[in-house]
Amino acid sequence: MSKRVLYVGGLSETVSDEQLKVLFAHYGVVMRAYVIRHKHSGRSAGYGFVEMNSGEAALKAVLGLEGARVNGDCLRLYVTPYASAAAS
């Protein structure tokens, strides 16, 4: 399977890009992880994206983390319809 990008919603304001990467690394190789931030304030928008090295790793992450609580907030995840090459 090709690389896959996951949408990760329900992130608390305190979650960093690095924390997101570490969280997902338990399920496979993370190519890239980033939290979306508001343009003017730099504060977290409450969601981000994680690019896994395979579709299998992405599905494992969704199964393992969907509904998990991180810093008190409940995660919402899904595999985006775009492979990483299309999203770049």
Quick take:
With 88 residues, this protein is α+β, with helices and mostly antiparallel strands.
Beta percentage is 35-45%
- Biggest β-sheet: count, sense, barrel? 4 strands, antiparallel
**Computed CA radius of gyration, to the nearest angstrom:** 12 Å
State the separation between the terminal residues, measured CA to CA: 18 Å
- Overall SS class: alpha+beta
Strand order of the largest sheet: 2-3-1-6
Number of strands: 6
- On the 0 to 100 scale, the average pLDDT is 89
Shape: globular
N-to-C series of helices and strands: EHEEHEEEH
What this model shows, in words?
By secondary structure, the protein is an alpha+beta fold. The protein contains 3 helices and 6 strands. The strands form 2 sheets. A 4-stranded antiparallel β-sheet has the order 2-3-1-6. Strands 4-5 form a two-stranded antiparallel ribbon. A hairpin with a 2-residue loop joins strand 4 and strand 5. The radius of gyration is 12 Å and the shape is globular. The C terminus is likely disordered.
Strands, helices and their partners?
Blueprint: E1 4-9, H1 17-25, E2 30-37, E3 44-52, H2 55-65, E4 69-70, E5 73-74, E6 76-83, H3 84-87
Antiparallel strand pairs: 1-3, 1-6, 2-3, 4-5
Structural features:
88 residues, alpha+beta, 4-stranded antiparallel beta sheet, two-stranded antiparallel sheet, 3 helices, 40% strand, globular, disordered C terminus
